[in-house]
Amino acid sequence: MQTIDDYILEHIDEEGELLASLNRDAHVNLLHPRMIAGHLQGRLLKMICRIARPKRILEIGTYTGYATLCMAEGIDDEGIIYTVEINDEMQPFTIPYIEKSPYKDRIRLFWGDITDLYPTFNEVFDMVFIDAEKKDYIAHYDLVFPRLKKGGLILADNTLWSGKVVEKGKMSSDAQTKGILDFNEKIKNDNRVEKVIIPLRDGLTMIWKK
């Protein structure tokens, strides 16, 4: 029997050969392949870029580069994505896919801790995509917010955290879940922004700076 997810994927734009290859490769060779953005979320990220037309994007958490490549598709030729991945063991997987992309000139890939690298980026960002360690979401948010332009957009991934956000009593020893819970509460109470959580995959929060 066809599922709603199957139906959706049949009726949206295809992800393309490069991303499909990346997806297959991740599921064969990586320990946590479900961490990639995937077809539906990737098309949404591209569409958001088409609509918002950001000139400068910061991505915290490159992983395989799937989301990076999708956003690169959606921005204009003069747009640039600064993407930062702390786990340099991903280099042999991620770099070849970035290099194969026709949009590689729109991507600046950095390896290291965003806390160290961010001061070296002489940019004001139009959009930020946070998809790194969940326990660090608040720190990442506080780091980037001052240099996000007014009317800029922050996207935070995994903010429903496999439903753990509504499971009481299980977060005390789980730093990642606690990080998401604390982040969600912070955004809820931050009157500098407007926000909405989209129940797509593992939850995607859209945060607009007033």
Number of strands: 7
Spell the H/E element sequence.
Answer: HHHEHEHEHEHEHEE
Secondary-structure-based class equals alpha/beta
End-to-end separation in angstroms reads 45 Å
Write up this protein:
- The structure is a single chain.
- The protein has eight helices and seven strands.
- It is an alpha/beta fold.
- The chain has a seven-stranded mixed beta sheet with strand order 3-2-1-4-5-7-6, sandwiched between helices.
- A hairpin with a 5-residue loop joins strand 6 and strand 7.
- The longest helix is centred in the first third of the chain and has 15 residues.
What are the key terms here?
38% helix, seven-stranded mixed sheet, globular, alpha/beta, 210 residues
List the topology elements.
Elements: H1 4-10, H2 17-29, H3 38-52, E1 56-60, H4 66-74, E2 80-85, H5 91-100, E3 107-111, H6 114-117, E4 125-130, H7 137-144, E5 148-157, H8 175-188, E6 193-198, E7 204-209
Parallel strand pairs: 1-2, 1-4, 2-3, 4-5
Antiparallel strand pairs: 5-7, 6-7
Helix pairs in contact: 3-4
Q: Summary?
A:
With 210 residues, this protein is an alpha/beta fold. It contains 8 helices and 7 strands; from the N terminus they run H-H-H-E-H-E-H-E-H-E-H-E-H-E-E.
